[in-house]
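ok new one. same drill as before - structure tokens go in, u give me an amino acid for every spot. 542 of them this time. try not to just spam alanines like last time pls lmao
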């Protein structure tokens, strides 16, 4: 059985109303307040009252962590041994325990596996070096070997140090580990020291928060060192397993490192203690990056249930609904977001896209103009502004913003730019724009054919359209334009045949059917001309 993190277990039990007055809930609270002696008594009582061996093993692991924080190594080992007897398959999630505690667990497992009695206490005693002596020796150490040789003395001093001196010893140990290049272990100790000092300074009955350590974690995040943040916060959570702010920053670190499952677990643990909108929003972001759109939607919906005026949550819901194709929900959510905060840039642009799809060109223009007030000359918003102008027939106004978007690498606006250039009479520029793309799909092929037709290059247009019609026989536009190119070359039978095929397709508009009728009439007129008897020349005058 794999145990969840100590903090997660603590918070889960603390959240249940049935445990509100149990020794376990009281023990969790005492541990969070660094009242380790009281927590140990309560955990022991909770273990004695638990009939399920697996749950009892979990409680005894917490008891072991408590003794470990009290520097009672022997009692911690005994608690681990009892936990292993309750559950021989016991495993710990290593990310949330210090390296020293995991070593202790490994020692106990090895001892039990070999069925060996505990090692006898040494008969000879040797007083460990004092803290000032160790500091002096560390300062005088000239190489890694000398620093490494100090670690046993530091460990001995750590085991014997009273609670009020422990943090000073751990500081020295962290410095030694840093000199050895063991940065992760050093940061873990720094985190533990920060949590212990915050607990010692906190007023009775309050939840201690290691603010300085969390600020250092934020600085490391800003410096692009997320895994160092993870190491630092492991130390914090070893001393304060239910420190919700630490879980919040830990989730950000895992998210920055791309470790999405760990970020999700950290956020879920933090949310057990408090459903803060910021945490729920972060959870939705993690779910999005994991590709779990329904999970993200549930998280964002929970935000607006907790905080109905949260504009970021409404915007996230709207953007997600648009991505999932639920235009009605997207429209409603984005309107609520923009009513609460008109400066939401991405929400403005996506709302404009929806307005364009609805045929509301003026509404789309209004949204995009406001978006560009927030981010002037933004290529994405500019591209959609050009598309909105183009939809309204203002090709002159459409070209500059579309050109800006395409120059910025947004290839999605290339066809719209080529269309605007063609409609403005700049056919050569339109063809040059199309040449910069791969352009082998139906839409780009049709746009190129339109440009060739406008340029009077009917044979080239015919060749392009013949290929498109063969590959897409049910496409009305390809067949209609092919008929037009043939008609322009006075190939009346072929033109009438293609236009008739276009008019026979199920989605053919009225203009196509009219074109087929005109082509047929032209063909018949030509046939009459061809069949007419030549009029004889009048006789010459005498």
């Amino acid at each position: 059985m794999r145990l969840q993190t100590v903090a997660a277990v603590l918070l889960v039990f603390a959240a249940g109303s049935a445990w509100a007055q149990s020794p376990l809930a009281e023990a969790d609270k005492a541990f969070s307040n660094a009242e380790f002696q009281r927590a140990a008594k309560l955990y022991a009582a909770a273990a004695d009252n638990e009939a399920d061996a697996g749950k009892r093993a979990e409680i005894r692991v917490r008891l072991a962590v408590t003794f470990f924080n009290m520097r009672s190594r022997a009692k911690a080992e005994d608690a681990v041994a009892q936990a292993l007897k309750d559950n021989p398959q016991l495993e710990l999630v290593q990310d949330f325990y210090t390296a020293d505690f995991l070593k202790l667990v490994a020692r106990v497992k090895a001892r039990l596996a070999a069925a060996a009695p505990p090692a006898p206490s040494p008969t000879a005693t040797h007083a460990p070096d004092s803290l000032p002596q160790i500091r002096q020796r560390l300062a005088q150490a000239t190489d890694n070997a000398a620093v490494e040789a100090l670690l046993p003395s530091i460990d001995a001093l750590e085991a014997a140090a009273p609670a009020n001196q422990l943090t000073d010893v751990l500081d020295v140990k962290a410095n030694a580990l840093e000199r050895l290049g063991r940065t992760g272990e050093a940061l873990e100790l720094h985190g533990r020291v920060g949590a212990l000092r915050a607990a010692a300074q906190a007023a009775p009955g309050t939840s201690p928060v290691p603010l300085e350590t969390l600020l250092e974690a934020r600085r490391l995040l800003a410096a692009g060192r997320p895994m160092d943040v993870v190491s630092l916060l492991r130390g914090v959570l070893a001393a304060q397993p239910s420190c919700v702010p630490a879980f919040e920053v830990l989730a950000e670190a895992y998210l920055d490192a791309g470790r999405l499952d760990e970020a999700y677990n950290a956020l879920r643990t933090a949310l057990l203690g408090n459903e803060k909108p910021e945490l729920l929003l972060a959870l939705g972001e993690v779910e999005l990056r994991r590709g779990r759109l329904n999970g993200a939607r549930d998280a964002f919906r929970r935000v607006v249930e907790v905080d109905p005026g949260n504009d970021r949550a409404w915007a996230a819901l709207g953007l997600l609904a648009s991505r999932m194709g639920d235009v009605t929900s997207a429209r409603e959510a984005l309107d609520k977001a923009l009513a609460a905060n008109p400066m939401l840039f991405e929400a403005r642009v996506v709302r404009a896209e929806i307005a364009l799809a609805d045929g509301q060109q003026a509404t789309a223009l209004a949204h995009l103009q406001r978006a560009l007030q927030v981010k002037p000359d933004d290529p994405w918003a500019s591209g959609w502004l050009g598309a909105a102008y183009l939809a309204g027939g203002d090709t002159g106004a459409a070209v500059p913003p579309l050109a800006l978007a395409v120059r910025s690498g947004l290839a999605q606006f290339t066809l719209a730019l080529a269309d605007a250039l063609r409609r403005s009479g700049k056919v050569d520029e339109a063809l040059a724009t199309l040449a910069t793309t791969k352009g082998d799909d139906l839409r780009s092929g049709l746009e190129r054919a339109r440009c060739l037709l406008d340029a009077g290059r009917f044979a080239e247009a015919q060749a392009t359209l013949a290929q498109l019609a063969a590959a897409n026989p049910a496409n009305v536009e390809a067949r209609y334009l092919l008929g037009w190119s043939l008609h322009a070359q006075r190939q009346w039978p072929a033109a009438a045949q293609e236009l008739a095929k276009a008019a026979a397709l199920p989605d053919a508009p009225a203009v196509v059917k009219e074109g087929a009728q005109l082509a047929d009439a032209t063909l018949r007129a030509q046939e009459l001309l061809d069949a007419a008897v030549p009029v004889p020349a009048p006789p010459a005058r005498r």
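The chain has a mean pLDDT of 87. and btw The two ends are 125 Å apart (CA to CA).
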